[in-house]
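Duplicate of earlier report; C2 domain-containing protein input re-posted below.
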Amino acid sequence: MGSGCSTPRGWHKQEDDEKKPRVKITFPDPVEDAPRKPRASLCEGGGEAGVAAGAVGAGGGLAIKIENCTHVPDTDLTGHSDAYVVVKALVDGKEIATVFSSVRDNSRFPVWNEWLVVPGDVAAWSLSNTEIKFELWDEDLLVNDYIGEAVISLQELVRRSRRELLLTTDGDAVLSSEVPRKPCQLRVSLEVESMPQTWPRPVPRETEGSYPKHIFMMSRGTRGDVQPFVALARGMAEQLGWLVTICTEIRWKPFIHSNSRCLTKGKIRFLPSGGDTAVRIERWEAKWAMESKSEIVQCAMLAFSEAEFFSSGPVFVHHVEELKQTTPIDLIVSAFTLTGLAMMVSECCAVPMAGFVLQPSCIPSSDPTWKCVVEIKKDNRFSVTNALESSCTSHKTLAKLKGLAEDNPFSSFGITSLRREFGLKLAQTWQTIFRLNIPMVIPMAPGTFTSPSDWGSRVVLTDFIFLRGGGGTDQGSLSPEIADFIRNARAAGRKLAVMSFSSMPVARKKMLQSAVKMLMESVLTVALIYVGKRFDDVIPADLAGKTESLKSDGRFLEVEGADFGALFKEMDCFIIHGGLGTTVEALRTHKPVAVTGLLLMDQRFWGGVCALKGVGPNPVHIDEFPTVCVDFLNDALTDQSEYVEKAQLLTWGDEESDGVSVNVQAFATLLDEGVLPVEVS
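Output:
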């Protein structure tokens, strides 16, 4: 324990529910079954070190009950874990107070029913900036073993004072040692009487109403992966009055809640899947893979995409089994990266499934022209290497790599081992999907691409889906900074272009190299807006000077974010990363589109669509874009532009439509026609 910290006595009381005081909590000396850990510590800057008995809520601390934990994994060579809980208060990520529970020996299902007080002047804590962190540990003679943790904002804990928290480690769900594995969950509750009077009171848990249908959505990944599911869920709730449970990474819980507040019908709930994709893609190996231009690496990334999420399999099964007891599920709707897991959950829990596929190139076909990875132009002088790269764009190669990824002998998870855990027969995912004719809904307009002839009859294209409104923010307007830039550019007779890579980690130096080159070498007078994160990589002095000069002249603007629905209507051409939503929004303006950036998986697909439709050049990696960017700008903005001519002839759906109704109706039709649970014979 660091300097400035003390260890006061009287920080916990163990008692049964019926013995809990009604009005005021007192905290006598520890009982015989006391923890073999310090009771509490109050770090420097956190306030007074001691709290008088009965002073809880008046500068004396926040009372939290540690109830029990389920499916605690064994961390010892013999016997079960000797579990205890550490509760920490964090303000802006800084630990200000810590308190420990007692130890429960040799149990996979430890029960505490123990009140702890997190010390400090809680009335001064900000509900929005304070978090409560629960850590589960196993006590050993020499070194204690960390098991997992859960973090919840104080605002959320106050809103609903009794919680069951999924424990995670390195982002992934903590799972039990027994087979089949189950998620480890900690149940805690907040003592309302210890809360300052200025805090809002907890909201009673709503009783479940009656809904025509209950849909369980499985999605993991980035915000772009989750967002279409939120749009679909809102449509199902608002238009049909359905109950929708979205099971995804806890990072997206606030995003889902913010887009569910204004519903007048139906209901959307959130459940955690475990995992944190945003953390994973920050690792060095993920960054290396994302920056690679190799088709071999791209195919491997696609092959390993579902294997990365296998740790969520037992969590999905647990949630569906629990929900079936209170609100039976009519349909599981899964992302393409969870197809094998959804098939397992469907069979294990006897619930029908359907896919909601945002990347159609992942659906296999024997057609040799149907590629899982779109090739891009590279500066590769070796024909042997080129031939090898080309061979890795086929679904035959992808199937082999998926077999290695999904049954990796060096991993604790594999689709075969998971199916065995749950007593299911072995099965090939896509062979089973096609044999059982399991529905796959692709939220793209018919004609976007030519579907392979060997796809099943229930692989259907609907319409592009967008999430608009409902998030509590202003929609359809531009910031004064952007509006002024556009107004001044038009007054100066300049054409307008926008460049954006969304959340893709494209270095600012690489972006500026292309942006400056286009603005300084184009035969036309152009103004360019870059929308996206501003990374802190080093910019050469010469490039930085040119950038500032262009900004001073009103020809270049960098902003962190913008409403694309409003911004894109003002643009004359687009340089984008190739994500589905951004690309279709651009195509709907009937203007030229160039796709560049890191070009990961579906981004290559959409770059290929733009080139095939004649509205832009072949997709090229951001490293090569400076060699073609000026030609694109000149060709796109000339009065006789072939790109513009072809773009104006194409239809990408109703520009004012968000596509939600069409997709909702597609799932309603599937349920009316009948969808059966997966059953492997």
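The longest strand covers residues 62-70.

Merging into the original ticket.
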